[in-house]
Amino acid sequence: MSKTLALVCICIFMMGTVPAITGENRNHLFPSEHNPEVYAKIASAMDSYNLLVIVPDEWKNELEPFQQHKENYGMRTQLIGIDEIYNGDYFSTEGRDEAEKIKYFIKNALDTWNVTYVLLVGGRRPGMDEQWFCPVRYVGEKLWNDVQNLGDLYFADIYDDTGIFQSWDTNEDDLFGTRNDDMDLYPDVFLGRWACRSLIDLRTVIDKTITYENTLMHSNKVVLVSGDIFEDQQNYVEGELITDQTAEFLAGYEPVRVYASETDVNPDNIKAALGEGASFMHLDGHCWMTYVSVYKPGQYDAFERGLGIWDLPFFSNTEYPIVVIGGCRTAQFNIAVFDRPEQLVDPPWYAKYFPALYTISWGFVRSIDGGGVAAIGYTVPPFFGFGETGDLDNDGIEEPDILEIGMGVLEPMVFYAYGVEGKQHLGDCWGYSLHNYIDKFGDIGSVWQPWNTATIHGFVLLGDPSLKIGGYP
Ligand SMILES: [Ca+2]
Ligand SMILES: [Ca+2]
Ligand SMILES: [Ca+2]
Ligand SMILES: [Ca+2]
Questions:
Q1: What protein residues have CB closer than 5 angstroms to ion ligand 3?
Q2: How many A from CA of 405 to the centre of ligand 3?
Q3: 35: burial class by Cβ within 10 Å (0-12, 13-18, 19+)?
């Protein structure tokens, strides 16, 4: 978590100013229902269960067994090479640059093929120059380190509720998703990315995804890892409050807790809790791209040993969980060796200087013979509620603010979508959480707007959005 934000929050708290929440609480999933024509199109896409895979042409043949696997379960799957998009092989090419060409292609695939799920295949290419196997879009305000942030939601928000294409650059200054641009934000396709940096990554995640969906028996276990995050007057143990919400939403699942209030949060205890595997893992704490940790309640002078990407090769679980990791930059997939953004709270030195090509979220997914099958996290320091300043979600229930706005809402709602709403595919859960959040807080109309919007932009699924949770029976 960015201490800048925490400090700003503390200042606001001390001034006694409650951030004004003006987003109306609309009880619907898709904004497009205001427009019957658009809604009908999206609703029919929802029924068609089809998957669009956008892949570098050099990797296309690697995906053929994956396509066959999906088709075997009735998931119509189209593999499209990125050069085929640029060459206009399917639809005439539109867009000012590579990312916009990809976005227009997804629009055309939604209009023409009723695509429900979109999987972008490819992360950053190896090397010091920033180049990508599959394009990215930097969006939003320069809130941290004077750069914009990775925003894959750009590729998923195609229309607003009147059916107008969402360019995310309505003022046409070639800066996308800023406060001067209109954005609907609501995703119209369920989108994930395999942030592969090598053929080994790609083969690993294909193999793990197929194995996961072919496995009939999944455990009824959810592993929860957290502790105290912020020094607040109420002494809330914020991380544990968040992951306890997840446990509540997964009725019938046995929670196995690694909580700083009860034990040491270290790799051995996390590995022991995971054992042979689990259906889900939810970790929440401070994060520095490669490393996540928490405090023991009230003891803010030292972090727990936590978990870093260097620990992941020692995981040997055979059941691959879906992993949600909350904290700063847990899934910021443009990471490059030593080039880390400054964060005001310093991690231990080994976390700061360990050379890395991937974050903790993607680390779980790319791990061979262990780790997870897909991960949800943030490409930014996420927004959060701090202490107790009122009923921020206007539901008439006074709860700790951490559970009423920001990351403490977004993460548990992924599990709510599955455990309570019965969503069956992981992308639907990601989309449900975002839709719920944007309904409530899409426009908070306060000084926090840019931070809140960045969190929406940066809430990313690194995995197959069509993943059938629990596998195919
Ligand atoms: Ca703009
Ligand atoms: Ca606390
Ligand atoms: Ca409330
Ligand atoms: Ca509250």
A1: 391, 393, 395, 397, 399, 404
A2: 9
A3: middle
